[in-house]
């Protein structure tokens, strides 16, 4: 305890003795002690935030109210305003007429003093507005806020503090210059609250005593969802960045290049934990805030617990930019997204962009029909979203510079990393600087970040000895002459890692080796005997945690289970009691945690660990049994607290908590929900991963009341969802395996309908695999004869497995051997030998009928019909196809659209145009039902042929389509999907139609183009 502290305690003790000693004795004694305080303390300089406010309108008010009423109104107002200041940790210095001066950082300096002052100012402004509305009186308020080193001394005769100097004068000048009912900030205060408030730079102010005009900033509003770059340090100590001048100059150079016409600059700061990445980002942001043309900022940070949530980083970036809260109702969130995008793109393009981008980030597409009707695939949605985001960012940065800051990219989700990488790699001519921060593990991911000539790397190394020594002196600035042993210990042991250095200083303070005070610190000049400190930052953190009392340790452990970011409500639920507010204050003062200015979950106090390393150490220090219980309660709290309409955004986080709690069933349920949400967002890889995780966690039934059928039902749905996602990702063999799993579950349930659906979808995946290889789509690398044979063998094995599940394993094995050539031939849509194909189909048809496999029978009949049409045996084809359509009434079959289309083709060949109309329309209906774009394109071509042969438009729904319209739709669809073979065939049919209509120039050009496409694919002599 310092001498000043002892004197203050003596004064407080004397105050309690007034009744027994009398005022005279007490006042005399206190005066002597206050004089001693003045002698002890003298004058000191402290970093303070000073607020001046002035209320106007009392003069007019006094004419309308009598003195008593006037006094009551003023008293009520000043009580509320003073309470607002005190509740934000401020201290009233003095009232001067209608003005008040308040100070932050006097008793207990804090890093968020400037923020608290500005928030108090905002609330004071609201209090005056409310009173003006309630009383109908013309009161107004002006407020000025400044932060800086200030002279503080005690007046010996009264013991009062005397706070004077340039900082106070500038705060007063800002208040006088502030517009009515507005708040004006100095450059110093604004730089310390950047990202927390929307501000507007004002013309420089001419201030008495200042040689140059000073910058000022008008506060527009607090940010609903604030993002502030972290900058750690020691409580009560303001340190400058040391040893990073060259790196900061590089970032400033990138920014200036972007603004001078060089286009988008993309750089990533890379380095291990604690090396100073966040501090450098914060310094760059602060520097750019001081420029005459302040840039627009888009900022986001990734967290470990959201790494598996698709597009979470992108959602955070846009949510921060457009002020979308996680508890905003979906309609409100969507409206903010539309409004923000429309402000730059215009109403029409803004709504379209919101539909596509909203689909990716989990804000439902609403009434945007192409998405709402499920007519677009994931690749198209992602492509459109990227295009529209590019357009938005380009226009945003067209008239003013823009900066995107991304922190902790090593935890970014794969989908955001992929999209942002593609977005920034375009070499855009934007006035934009993209700066990311990441640990080296980012580059070990499967989705590369920065794999582009546009990207530049800025690697941070440990500080050299000279800079590390300078940093130590900065941290020990309150020690008049730091002893050499202390400086040497801190420099040598920490190896130039700034975070390690800060934590080691904190440890020495907690051990009492460094004694702290408001203005000065002391340390023994000689190194204590036997002094031992840990050799790693993790060791320092463990030692600091061990020095906490048991209750503080448990609270931190409960918080660490929630994650690097946590909420007081969650910890209260985990502990099953309310954690006292004083405990959070103490942990924050120790530099272990930090309160966030706003919360992802409004209404919940949100904190984050000062460093992810600290959270990791706390988590590992927690016993496994405790972790399981804590994870379970964390999951329960999130389920309860997240908005039901938007619960899917937290599904993957909740599932992970349940999985860590070894609660397999709820974990599987939430992974399934996360998979469904990812599917709705068209995030296929995330959806398939979640479905697979759910399947892995499902356990066999155990205990009373559980049935084997319960697990089979869940597996059935999960395998079906997994198969669908894998197929859409063009991972066809894996998709077939998933459908085999679905088939096993369906058989266990005796569900013949699901069995048939699984069987058909498995074969559909196999057919798609072959088609992709043949037409150069996904899987085109499987092009060599050897690779094609391997794919064919895999198809045979999977088909054999399907038959095995159906109960005919022996037959399945022989079937696999005898139909190798069948698959090799039939999977080609252009078989060179129709007769051989028909024979093989008949052989396969016998096997299918023997096994009672209706799907297999339908497949063989459809394929043999195609070969019979090539042979011009139209009557036999019609008979077979009618049988397929008859069977389709008994069992669902994916390829039924093909049967209707081929029937229409056969009837057209027989000249029965009117009869061909119905199956042609039915082919389109079935193709759309299964969402198979190739089938839809083929159906359009057949409809074109029907319309051409009939000479009349064909009615599809409410629209009449000319033959040329149908052909055009078919060609465009195949062009978009990259199916060159089908595009060539459709183009050839269109060419024949144009020639028949007499447009020989157009018809010949089309025919030449069609033949060129088909010849490149080795396809000739088409009928």
Protein described:
- α36 (854-870) runs parallel beside α38 and α38 runs parallel beside α40.
- β11, α16 (414-424) and β12 form a beta-alpha-beta unit.
- 44% of the residues are buried.
- The strands form five sheets. Strands 1, 2, 3, 4, 5, 6, 7 and 8 form an eight-stranded mixed β-sheet that branches. This protein has a five-stranded parallel β-sheet with strand order 10-11-12-9-13.
- With 1023 residues, it is of the alpha/beta class.
Give a nutshell description of this structure:
The protein is α/β, with parallel strands linked by helices and 1023 residues long.
How would you describe this structure in keywords?
1023 residues; alpha/beta; 8-stranded mixed beta sheet; 5-stranded parallel beta sheet; 43 helices; 20 strands; 59% helix
Gyration radius, to the nearest Å? 37 Å
How much of the residues is beta strand, in percent?
5-15%
Helicity range of the residues?
Answer: 55-70%
- N- to C-terminal distance: 101 Å
Summing up helix and strand content along with how strands pair, one would put the structural category as alpha/beta
Shape annotation: elongated
The number of strands is 20
Q: How does the major sheet shape up?
A: 8 strands, mixed
Average pLDDT works out at: 79
Structure annotation, total helices: 43
Uncertain residue ranges: 38-42, 701-706, 772-832
């Amino acid at each position: 305890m310092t001498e000043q502290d002892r004197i203050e305690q003596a004064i407080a003790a004397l105050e309690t003795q007034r009744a027994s000693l009398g005022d005279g004795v007490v006042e005399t004694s206190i005066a002597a002690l206050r004089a001693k305080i003045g002698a002890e303390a003298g004058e000191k300089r402290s970093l303070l935030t000073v607020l001046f406010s002035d209320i106007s309108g009392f003069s007019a008010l006094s004419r309308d109210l009598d003195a008593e009423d006037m006094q009551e109104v003023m008293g009520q107002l000043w009580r509320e305003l003073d309470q607002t200041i005190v509740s934000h940790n401020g201290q009233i210095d003095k009232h001067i007429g209608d003005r008040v001066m308040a100070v932050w950082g006097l008793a207990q300096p804090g890093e968020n003093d400037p923020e608290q002052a500005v928030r108090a100012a905002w609330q004071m402004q609201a209090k005056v507005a409310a009173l003006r509305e309630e009383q109908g009186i013309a009161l107004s308020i002006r407020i000025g806020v400044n932060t800086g080193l200030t002279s503080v001394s005690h007046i010996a005769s009264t013991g009062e503090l005397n706070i004077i100097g340039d900082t106070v004068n500038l705060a007063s000048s800002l208040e006088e210059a502030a517009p009515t009912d507005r708040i004006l900030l100095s450059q110093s205060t604004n730089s310390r609250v950047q990202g927390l408030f929307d501000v507007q730079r004002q013309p420089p102010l001419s201030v008495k005593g200042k040689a140059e005009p000073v910058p000022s900033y008008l506060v527009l509003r607090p940010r609903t969802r604030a993002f502030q770059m972290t900058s750690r340090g020691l409580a009560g100590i303001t340190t400058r960045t040391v040893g990073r001048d060259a790196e900061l100059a590089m970032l400033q150079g990138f920014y200036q290049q972007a603004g001078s016409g060089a286009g988008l600059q993309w750089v990533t700061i890379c380095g291990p934990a604690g090396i100073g990445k966040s501090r450098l980002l914060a310094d760059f942001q602060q520097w750019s805030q001081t420029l005459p043309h302040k840039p627009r900022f888009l900022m986001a940070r990734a967290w470990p617990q959201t790494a598996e949530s698709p597009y979470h980083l992108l959602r955070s970036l846009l949510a921060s930019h457009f002020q979308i809260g996680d508890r905003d109702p979906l309609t409100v969130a969507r409206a903010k997204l539309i409004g923000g995008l429309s402000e730059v793109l215009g109403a029409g393009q803004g709504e379209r962009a919101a539909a596509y981008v909203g689909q990716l980030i989990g804000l439902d597409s609403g009434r945007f029909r192409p998405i709402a009707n499920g007519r677009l695939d994931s690749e198209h949605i992602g492509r459109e979203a990227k295009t529209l985001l590019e357009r938005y960012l380009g226009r945003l940065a067209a008239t003013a510079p823009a900066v995107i800051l991304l922190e902790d990219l090593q935890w970014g989700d794969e989908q955001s990393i992929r999209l942002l990488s593609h977005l920034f790699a375009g070499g855009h001519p934007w006035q934009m600087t993209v700066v990311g921060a990441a640990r080296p593990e980012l580059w070990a991911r499967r989705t590369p970040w920065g794999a582009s000539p546009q990207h530049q790397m800025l690697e941070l190394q440990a500080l050299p000895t000279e800079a590390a020594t300078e940093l130590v002196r900065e941290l020990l600035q309150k020690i008049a002459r730091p002893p050499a042993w202390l400086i040497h210990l801190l420099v040598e042991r920490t190896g130039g890692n700034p975070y390690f250095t800060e934590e080691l200083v904190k440890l020495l303070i907690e051990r009492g080796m460094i004694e702290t005070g408001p203005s000065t610190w002391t340390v023994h000049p000689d190194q204590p005997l036997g002094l031992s400190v840990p050799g790693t930052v993790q060791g320092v953190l463990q030692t600091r945690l061990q020095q906490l009392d048991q209750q503080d340790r448990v609270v931190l452990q409960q918080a660490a289970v929630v994650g690097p970011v946590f909420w007081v409500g969650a910890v209260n639920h985990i502990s099953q009691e309310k954690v006292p507010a004083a405990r959070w204050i103490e942990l924050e003062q120790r530099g272990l945690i930090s309160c966030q200015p706003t919360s992802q979950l409004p209404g919940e106090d949100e904190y984050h660990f000062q460093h992810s390393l600290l959270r990791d150490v706390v988590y590992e220090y927690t016993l496994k049994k405790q972790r399981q219980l804590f994870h379970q309660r964390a999951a329960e709290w999130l389920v309860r607290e997240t908005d039901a309409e938007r619960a899917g955004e937290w599904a993957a986080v909740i599932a992970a908590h349940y999985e860590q709690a070894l609660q397999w069933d709820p974990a599987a349920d939430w992974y399934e929900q996360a998979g469904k949400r990812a599917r709705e967002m068209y995030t296929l890889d995330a959806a398939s991963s979640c479905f697979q995780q759910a399947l892995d966690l499902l356990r066999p039934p155990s205990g009373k009341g559980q049935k084997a059928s319960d697990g089979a039902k869940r597996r059935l749905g999960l395998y079906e969802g997994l198969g669908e996602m894998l197929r859409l990702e063009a991972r066809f063999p894996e998709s077939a395996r998933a459908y085999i799993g679905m088939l096993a579950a369906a058989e266990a349930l005796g569900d013949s309908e699901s069995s048939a659906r699984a069987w058909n979808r498995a074969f559909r995946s196999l057919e798609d695999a072959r088609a992709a290889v043949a037409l150069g789509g996904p899987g085109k690398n499987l092009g060599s004869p050897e690779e094609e044979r391997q794919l064919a063998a895999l198809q045979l094995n999977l088909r054999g497995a399907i038959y095995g599940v159906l109960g005919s394993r022996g037959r399945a094995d022989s079937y696999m051997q005898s139909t190798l050539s069948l698959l090799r031939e039939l999977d080609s849509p252009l078989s060179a030998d129709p007769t051989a194909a028909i024979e093989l189909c008949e052989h396969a048809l016998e096997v299918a009928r023997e096994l009672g496999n209706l799907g297999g029978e339908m497949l063989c009949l459809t394929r043999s019909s195609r070969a019979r049409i090539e042979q011009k045996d139209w009557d036999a084809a019609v008979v077979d196809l009618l049988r397929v359509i008859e069977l389709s009434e008994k069992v669902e079959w994916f390829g039924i659209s093909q049967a209707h289309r081929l029937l229409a083709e056969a009837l057209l060949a027989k000249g029965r145009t009117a009869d061909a109309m119905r199956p042609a329309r039915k082919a389109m209906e079935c193709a759309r039902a299964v969402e198979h774009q190739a089938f839809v394109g083929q159906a359009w071509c057949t409809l074109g042929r029907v319309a051409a042969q009939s000479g009349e438009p064909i009615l599809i729904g409410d629209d009449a389509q000319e033959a040329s319209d149908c052909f055009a739709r078919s060609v465009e669809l195949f062009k978009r999907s990259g199916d060159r073979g089908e595009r060539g065939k459709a183009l050839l049919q269109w060419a024949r139609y144009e020639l028949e209509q007499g447009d020989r120039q157009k018809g010949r050009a089309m025919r030449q183009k069609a033949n060129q496409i088909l010849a490149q694919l080795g396809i000739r002599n088409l009928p």
